[in-house]
Design goal:
The chain has 6 helices and 5 strands; from the N terminus they run ααααβαββαββ. By secondary structure, the chain is an alpha+beta fold. The chain has 2 domains: 63 residues; 108 residues, Sporulation initiation phosphotransferase B (SpoOB), C-terminal domain (Heat Shock Protein 90, 2-Layer Sandwich), CATH 3.30.565.30. A 5-stranded mixed β-sheet has the order 1-2-3-5-4. The chain is extended, with a radius of gyration of 25 Å. The two termini are 36 Å apart. InterPro entries: Sig_transdc_His_kin_SpoOB, SPOB_a. This is SpoOB alpha-helical domain-containing protein.
Length: 237
């Protein structure tokens, strides 16, 4: 996709350059040739843009289908456990599995209350596919729609921040990493708290975190961390 974007940008610049040349050039055969070249470049630009949009659309569909497949796979695993415990009459373990499934569904409901489709999809995808930690989302906003614009404006930075945990959390068999995100309101202001418990490559995480924090606008950032625990709270003005 990067190559298509570069080709599109170069094409646009060439169009602008040729139009400027046409503007300052006197009439005659040279002008007609330049106009023909401009038309050809515009046609090429049209097909390049169309190809790029088609690529983006196919990629989006592919990501959605992958998410559905992962979700179905996880759900089938839970259902098989439930039916297995019912068959074996191990009702004590059955209660644990049902409670776990109930909490998982509640976290998904919390995500879908944010009113920001792209962010919601990313959080649901991360909850399903993350191999670095258990992922939980809490939401206690009285009126989530009140903060929709702020969440939309900062959605990509929030995703960048989440990707840091995915990138630097150490995925080992003897570690139960857990990341909890809490969307809440305090004094009529939006707060988003990230709490990570587990093993993480802290020096690299802190270095990349500073780059992301500087991009937040009108947001106060509180952070505390050590090698086993990280707490980051964003307060939106």
């Amino acid at each position: 996709m990067g190559n298509w974007k570069r080709i599109s940008l170069i094409t646009e610049l060439l169009v602008l350059l040729l139009l400027v040349i046409i503007f300052v050039t006197s009439t005659g055969w040279l002008t007609r040739i330049l106009i023909m070249i401009t038309v050809i470049i515009i046609i090429i630009h049209f097909f390049v843009t169309k190809k790029q949009r088609s690529y983006d659309k196919n990629q989006s569909i592919s990501e959605t289908l992958n998410f559905i497949h992962h979700y179905q796979h996880d759900l089938m695993n839970e259902l098989q456990l439930i039916f297995g415990y019912i068959k074996l009459k191990k009702f004590d373990k059955l209660i644990f599995i049902v409670e776990k499934l109930k909490h998982s569904i509640q976290h998904e409901r919390n995500i879908t209350k944010l009113n920001v489709p792209y962010l919601e999809f990313f959080l649901l995808k991360m909850k399903t596919k993350s191999k670095s930690y258990q992922f939980k989302v809490e939401e206690s906003l009285n009126s989530p729609e009140k903060f929709t614009d702020k969440l939309k404006d900062h959605a990509f930075l929030l995703i960048d921040l989440l990707n840091l945990f995915e990138k630097y959390a150490e995925n080992t068999y003897d570690t139960d990493n857990e990341l909890t995100i809490d969307f809440f309101e305090e004094k009529q202001k939006l707060h988003i708290a990230f709490e990570f418990v587990g093993k993480i490559k802290l020096p690299q995480f802190k270095k990349d975190l500073e780059l992301i924090v500087t991009k937040f606008i009108d947001v106060k950032v509180k952070q505390e961390m050590n090698e086993k625990w990280i707490s980051i709270e964003l307060q939106f003005d």
